[in-house]
Amino acid sequence: MKNKAFVFVILFCFVCVSVFSQNQSTVNQVNRVLINMEIIDLIENSNNRLDELIYYLSEPLTIIIDDPNTEPNFEIRNGNIIFTNQYISSMVIQLSVNHAGRLHVYNDNQEGAEIFEVIFFVQNRYVGLLFRRNVHQDSFNLLSAIINGKPYNLNSQGALPRLMIGSNLNLR
Q1: Residue-wise pLDDT tens digits, 81-132
Q2: Residues 59, 136, 164, CA angle at the centre, nearest 5°?
Q3: Which of 17, 71, 87, 147 pairs with 133 at a CA distance of 20 to 30 A?
Q4: Where are the domains of the chain?
Q5: For residues 57 and 149, what is the distance between their CA atoms, to the nearest angstrom?
Q6: At 162, is the secondary structure helix, strand, or coil?
Q7: What is the bridge-based pairing of β-strands 139-147 and 150-153?
Q8: Which residues contact 114 (CB under 8 A, 6 or more apart)?
Q9: How far apart are CA 65 and CA 106, in angstroms?
């Protein structure tokens, strides 16, 4: 009788571990997919909202601003120009694909010019990124940035990042 109870306890433990590992593997199977109109319609037609999602970039992004809109404060000492600590001649902001953003504004335009404004907290500042719908690719491509309340158009030698969300789909 003791052997049967012992076997039962061991079997029960294996079942518990198996169920727990299946639940964990389901949680770990979250991928990132490009947000598109099909996903937007699915969310808007349900009891969910777009601002419940966490947003990501498809590619890392580095923004270099040569004019951070700061007046230089300096003095000349012994023939050298000495800037105060507050003056920054350029600002570099780096966003990785792991930075999570939150929806600030979604503007649904009937003419196919839908806009997402997603706020990322990066390097102790809020950076707003605007994404415009690319109808041909059915995705949202980065258009511009708002840093310290000032808008900046973005240029790149390659493609700018697109907007992604977490999902258990295997699409990309």
Answers
A1: 887 666 566 778 899 999 999 999 988 876 667 899 999 999 888 999 999 9
A2: 30
A3: 147
A4: 31-167
A5: 21
A6: strand
A7: antiparallel
A8: 37, 40, 106, 107, 108, 132, 133, 140
A9: 26
